[in-house]
Amino acid sequence: MAQVMSGAEGFGSALRRLKHAQKSGKGAPPYSLYVNRPLGRVFAAAAYQVGLTPNQVTLVSAAFTFAGIGIVAFGPATWLFGFLVGALLMLGYALDAADGQLARLRGGGTLVGEWLDHMVDSAKIASLHLAVLICFWRTFDLPSPAWLLVPIVFCVASCVHFFGMILVDLMARVDRARSGSPAPMLPTNKIKTMLKMPMDYGVLCIAFFLLGWHLGFFVIYAFLAVGSTGYTILVVGKWRRDVAALDGRG
Fold it and tell me: In the chain, what is the greatest distance between 2 CA atoms, to the nearest angstrom?
């Protein structure tokens, strides 16, 4: 087990070391790659200084995120509360990027830590869209109840995308362990990165700043729902081909 020396290394030194210990950006959408990961590095270096563990950072991230989700579901859909929700969700997301980076800074993560991180992520993905469903039903003057299907469809697409992404990654890791092959280091494609903006969780967090403008928020949320659903439908086919390729090597 790696020996952890929290505080023995300065903040600046830890931050510089993290810049050279980043995972591949392939598959990451733009906000997550260009904004959230750098913010996560700052939080990871700060957490390292005060001796927090990655699991503790995960739980702090969950506290901010679910506080924001609770406000969406049960609070007033006003400008003030929209700004509060957006700030809480963005802070929770940045801390979510910090836990894995903190683990690398401390010498490596654990299976329990990865499990906790994924469990929190799966809970927030489903509950955020269900909170929006409650918010629409409670406070929005929708022309038809049929529009309540938008957060339901968004919830299904987001959950399928997250589970599929985790499952395909797990299958690839198992295959590499069996074959002894190293993980591929693939470059980031900037065009593909920008095309993933509609399903970027960070962009969804920013959208909540417009919660007080009901029409504007609904239109943007619906656009992200359509984009996320369309992307998920397309990527499922690619994942099937990737898994079939693993079968072909077995």
Answer: 60
- Residue 24 neighbours by CB under 8 Å, 6+ apart: 185, 186, 188
Tens digits of residue pLDDT in 66-112: 999 999 999 999 999 999 999 999 999 999 999 988 988 887 778 99
Q: Which domains does the chain have, with CATH numbers?
A: 26-249 (1.20.120.1760)
Q: Are 190 and 30 in contact (CB under 8 A)?
A: no
Q: Which of 80, 19, 11, 81 is nearest to 46 (CA)?
A: 11
The pLDDT of residue 28: 72
Those residues whose C-beta lies under 8 Å from the C-beta of residue 107, and which sit 6 or more positions away, are 1, 2, 3, 4
The pLDDT confidence band at residue 6, using thresholds 50, 70 and 90, is: very low
Which residues have a Cβ under 8 Å from the Cβ of 42 and sit 6 or more positions away?
15
CB 95 within 8 A of CB 43: yes
